[in-house]
UniProtKB/TrEMBL annotation:
Highest rank taxon of the organism: Bacteria
Sorted UniProt keywords: Amino-acid transport, ATP-binding, Cell membrane, Membrane, Nucleotide-binding, Transport
Gene Ontology molecular function: any one: ATP binding
Subcellular location: Cell membrane
Entry annotated with the keyword Transferase: no
PROSITE patterns named in the record: ABC_TRANSPORTER_1, ABC_TRANSPORTER_2
Domain ABC transporter: 5-239
Coarse class of the protein's main subcellular location: membrane
UniProt-recorded name of the protein: Amino acid ABC transporter ATP-binding protein
């Protein structure tokens, strides 16, 4: 299958601290890759490097075969092809929901206002937020704000969608509505890389699961392989801890 995102021997260091250590990753088109691992394992940093929010110290990252970590590459042009949703919603508080969503299409992609608004409204309706278009972010629940952030990422027709712990800041009762959106995107064939602590969700949506620890990918495989019969002791220990924590 065609690779949308590929990382080869990626290394990221802060001082003496190695955050990513010789990381390889291959994300085929129309698949979902889920990154699991404890906090500080390198999941979020890998996503930040993929979106060129951080520069890597060694290795290379490719988007549809193009080396986007080449210093000659225009990072802003690359980011226009990648949608990102973070744990924090990062919505502009002084803009309405509709204006939050249409800002990038209009200002960056030079889409006509009417076209951008029509598309935004179609996405909002699909995600059950059509009636919230004129509201400001502080009038929305956390789950609604996160869904708006996802719509904003989708409004530019990204080649790749990166989701970084998008349910971590939500109350448990709001998690389900956000995860349902991601399920629908998977059904549509959206190529995604997701960092998450939601193991049940990861098991359900992932085509590929990568377990990270200490900045390394210790094990990768299908959802059934990683959650059903992990081979590496570090993976087994991590999943046991998660299982035990949910039993408490």
């Amino acid at each position: 299958m065609t690779s949308v995102l590929r990382a080869e021997s990626v290394r990221k260091v802060f001082g003496s601290h190695v955050v990513l250590d010789d990381v390889d990753l291959d994300v085929p088109q129309h698949t979902v890759t889920v990154l699991i691992g404890a906090s500080g394992s390198g999941k979020s940093m890998l996503l930040r490097c993929a979106n060129l929010l951080e520069t890597i110290d060694d290795g290379a990252i490719f988007l549809e075969g193009r080396d986007i970590t080449d210093p000659r590459v225009n990072a802003d042009e690359v980011r226009q092809r990648i949608g990102v949703v973070f744990q924090a919603y990062n919505l502009f508080p002084h803009l309405s929901v509709l204006d939050n969503i249409t800002l990038a299409p209009r200002r960056v992609h030079r889409t006509a206002r009417r076209e951008a608004e029509d598309k935004a409204m179609a996405l909002l309706e699909r995600l059950g937020l059509g009636k919230k278009a004129a509201d400001y972010p502080d009038r929305l629940s956390g789950g609604q704000q996160q869904r708006v952030a996802i719509v904003r990422a989708l409004a530019t027709d990204p080649t790749l969608l990166l989701l970084d712990e998008i349910t971590a800041a939500l109350d448990p009762e709001l998690v389900g509505e956000v995860l349902e959106v991601v399920r629908s995107l998977k059904d549509d064939g959206m190529t995604m890389v997701i960092a998450t602590h939601e193991m049940g969700f990861a098991r359900e949506v992932a085509d590929q699961v990568c377990f990270l620890a200490d900045g390394k990918v210790h094990e990768r495989g299908t959802s059934a392989e990683i959650f059903g019969s992990p081979k590496e002791e570090r993976t087994q220990q991590f999943l046991r801890r998660i299982t035990e924590a949910h039993r408490l």
